[in-house]
Amino acid sequence: MTDAPIRSRLDSDTVRNALLHVFLYGLAFLMAVPYLYTISRSFQPNELLRDPRPYWIPPLVGEPVTLEHYQYLVNNTLVVEWTINTFVIAGGATILIVVIDSMIAFSLTRLDWPGQGAILGLILASFMVPYYMNIVPLYQIVSDLGLINSYWGVILPAAASPLGVFLLYQFFKDIPEEYEEAARLDGFSTFQVYTRIILPLAKPILSALALFMFVYNWNAFLWPLLVLSEQTAYTLPIGLVNLYQGNIDTPGLHMAVAILGSLPLFIVYLLFQGQLVRAVQMQGATG
Amino acid sequence: MGLTERFTGGADTTKRKTVAGFRKETIEGIVWSLPYLAVFAVFLVWPALRGLYMSLHTYPNKFDLSQTEWVGLQNYVELFNDPVFYNAMEGTFLFVAISVPLLVILGLVMALGVNKNVAGKRTLRAIYFSPYVLTVAVVTLVWVQMYSTSFGLINYYLGFIMENPPGWLTSTNLVMPALAFMTVWWLVGFNFVIFLAARQSIPDWLYEAAQLDGAHGWRAFKDITLPQMRNSVVFVVMVQFILQFQVFAQPYVMTQGGPKDSSDTLVYYLYRSAFSQQEFGYGAAMGYVLVAILIVIAIINFKVIGDSND
Predict the structure, then answer these.
(1) Residue B144 and residue A244: Cβ atoms within 8 Å?
(2) pLDDT tens, residue by residue, A215-241
(3) Strands, E assignment, B20-128
């Protein structure tokens, strides 16, 4: 008799838990619908694209599948060149950011020099400057420097971002001084302290920052759109939009281009999901 | 105190070598900072200052920007009398008013759900976060097709339950909600993972103690979860305000601000002024006004959500 209320409570807990699962997985399915739709459309032959019905994935028996959209893109557009451009720009910006941000974070936390507080304050204050406010004068400056249509015209402004400095500063300042003092007694130079002590200790945060910056710069839109005006210099996001504008009626091509444009990063995402998530969570924790 | 000592901080003189009166560490500190500071100065600080200069000038010759003409505050005066500017501001506020609350609340609900005793947490996290790694170019490309009236997925299914599904991107009332909705799909994962980390760092004993006091469910959420997560909520709200306020690519790619300018936004208008009409002074002035608006919003945000629980 006494266990009747307990059982009913268990039952209501079970029901609740089941509902929670339905909600969370239902939401996950809804969020995945655009993916499924994109994949399915990109394999549909042109004559079927006017039909709004999506394919099931994998396609049911008898539904024709084609690679024509992908072939068209690889043969008739610069999508391969754009991928290479994007890779060079995102990779270059990432390397530059990790190197110079870790150097200044090292200098601000491990070296003692007059004015470092003011410099740090200035960098933090620049967080308040929204990126787009600067685009007009920045464009003039990049143009004066002759960097229009060059990789550097995209990479250098990206490297000015204070985000990495801030994250690394937070991390470096918590590394105990004892490590460094012991190394100094062993005759380590400043450079050796940086490369042999600080960098190895900071490896997790450096890789998280690198991954985040790579994704961020791979996806950048407005700035590359302004700086890269020649077709051959486009990054993927700019190229994709340029292909698309004007011909809304070729859904197969759009979807294939969307797949090609996101595939490289999706592979990165699947491989390094943990680090990327950590990079975002660090921003939340320190902000 | 002598000059050398003032630079070296007195007591340190004996410890470190000096070069031309500067402590070695000072020189090293500056050298190690210099690469970033150079990039920072040229590509962030200098444009911010130069923007002020540009906003006070016009450029009579669109092809030779070395010719400038001082006009004082004329660009700003013009801006505040510009109906296109106000229309773009309205569009931006509407977009922010729809997208930011959804982004925050949905992200919070997802995080609290996944934090419970759920099977397949990693799968859920992977799916929820995944749209965030897409470039906005891909997102807009896909959603133009999703929203398409003639062969889009959404209206295909809506067609089963209603007579005439609406034209999402062609109706002046629906276009901003439609753009905001797809933006929520794209970015909610960012908020979700931040909230999840914040929720996971709340120690269990707080809830156990509360349970002994008879507080669970809504009361536990209100008295423990929300206050403990306050920093991350403030952070997410601020970041999303700043980010969504600068919405550009969605109208630029999907609607060109239409129909009838109903999806125009401030950054899109700034882009057109400066880079289509070559009104550089005007564009720079608009950049400064954007910052002013954002600072006001930031202050209001801090006042409203920053202090409410003290």
Answers:
(1) yes
(2) 999 999 999 999 999 989 999 999 988
(3) 22-23, 57-58, 69-70
Chain B nearest-CA residue for A266: B133
Question: Model ipTM?
Answer: 0.90
Q: Is residue B61 in some structural domain?
A: no
Q: Can you name the residues that pair with B70 across neighbouring β-strands? A: B57
Considering CB atoms only, which of A28, A138, A240 is closest to B43? A138
Query: Where exactly are the structural domains of chain A?
Result: 3-66, 72-286
| Prediction pTM value | 0.90
Cβ pair A154, A89 in contact under 8 A: yes
The distance of Cα A103 from the centroid of its chain, to the nearest Å, equals: 22
Which residue do the tokens 């299914």 mark? B157
Q: Are A116 and A108 in contact (CB under 8 A)?
A: yes
Domain range for B27: 3-55
Nearest chain A Cα distance for residue B222, angstroms: 20
Total domain count, chain B:
2
Do B182 and B302 belong together in one domain?
yes
Residues B132 and B176 in one domain: yes
Please state which CATH number belongs to domain A72-286: 1.10.3720.10
* Residue A135 CB-half CA count within 13 A: 27
In a domain, B71, yes or no: no
